Amino acid sequence: MSRHALPCFLAVATIAWGAGTSAGAGGIPLSMDAFGRDTFGQSAEITPVTLAAIHASVSEVAVGNQTTGWVFRTDQVPPACKGKRGEIVLFVALGVDGRIRDLRVVGHREDKKYFSRLGDAFFRQFRDKRADADIKSVDAVTRATYSSKAIIREVMEGARVVVSQPEVSAKIQTRKIVR
Questions:
Q1: Which of 129, 158, 159, 174 is least surrounded, with the fewest CB atoms within 10 Å of its CB?
Q2: Contact in structure between 131 and 98 (CB atoms under 8 Å)
Q3: pTM score > 0.90 for this model?
Q4: C-alpha of 117 from chain center
């Protein structure tokens, strides 16, 4: 490679790698550990756990030796759902009550024009939603239909798969909510 071609190649590779990804503070790509600590607190300990039945890896989150939840990447837990241009990858955090605590887009190849329509209101619909909630309880976004439906399916069905695994379901704390 010529002396001038290498800087151009590196610049293009950097732009391509960063396209469509979510980043933490300062533009640094967010890790699952960082996402877990952002969601559960900086003292959270994140430990990978292999779910034997589905050959998937999630991370258990503990604070003070007590399980407080789990985090997973949607591309590592079934089902694999695709938007219009490919799979959309998200981090999802689940609490010990089996509810979705947070989610964040890690990467996608969707058209920016349409994907940008998925604002905070769309993603807020998932927060505090039970993993076993009806998938129809989350509204898709008009003019970003493929992307929003893929995210809905990945998050809700992925969360359902995770909480149904013996390694997780044994630690889910179900409490009757008094209103």
A1: 174
A2: yes
A3: no
A4: 18
Tokens of 59: 């991370």
* Edge-to-edge strand ranges of the sheet holding 100-107: 45-51, 56-63, 66-73, 89-95, 100-107
Token couple for 50: 């292999």
Q: What is the pLDDT of residues 125-175, one digit of tens each?
A: 999 999 999 988 999 998 888 899 999 999 999 999 999 999 899 998 865
Amino acid at 128: D
Cβ partners under 8 Å of residue 98, min gap 6: 130, 131, 132, 163, 172, 174
* Torsion angle of the four alpha carbons 155, 24, 87, 101, in this order, in degrees rounded to the nearest 10: 0
Q: Which amino acid is at 168?
A: V
CA 149: distance to chain centroid? 15
